[in-house]
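FAQ: What does the model actually see?

It sees only this:
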Amino acid sequence: MKIAVVTGASSGIGKEFVKQIAKRYRTLDEIWVLARRKERLIELAEEIKSVKIRCICCDLTDKRKLLKYKNALKKYNPSIRMLVNAAGYGIIGKFAELKEKDNVGMVELNCSALTRMIDLSLPYMAKKKANIINLASSAAFLPQPSFAVYAASKSYVLSLSMALNEELKKRHITVTAVCPGPVDTEFFDIAEIYNSVKLYKRLLRAKPKAVVSLALKDAYHKKTVSVYGLTMKGFRLLTKLIPHSFIVKFIK
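And it is asked to produce this:
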């Protein structure tokens, strides 16, 4: 059984990945979708008719609940053609102003849960050709005051993805880190619970459909990093040319 696996599938970029994978990859037997909100997953499964959607409702940060995924892998022994780690969140605000559960929670979901998903999935990934797509962010390119933990967590995702891409070449598994700027999703409903996002980030929001379309294209062409839009590509170049200690003074 050939499958794709998508985390964070109940909304935003994760949901968009499921929709586009269902349209593009007709040889898949199933798409496994993981998220906490069961009703959202069921709605998504009812919406997509071209491929079977298997809903696995669980909190990715809870190892006991993630056993649902682990046990499903053991039971069905699928061939995973694509793993998309789209689950994640960020909260705007200075470190000391955020609650402990917020600071630690970002690391647990953005880093630990993503790492665990890769670890559980790798033994089942197709030997001929497979893709791992990890949602990082343009925030991964440099430290960001008032977004410190989120940016650091996404730097981890970017670094891990690039290293794994090299390690897994002999297995013909490509690992792509997706690094968009602000995207027009529910992300900001959580991100702004303490502070509002800066105006320029509102103006630069990209559409999830475009970000996901490029990410799938870049993954197909075995690119290590996928960056949508000229502005974010320019920002990435800027962070390579100018010392981070100088840039962070202007993005507080």
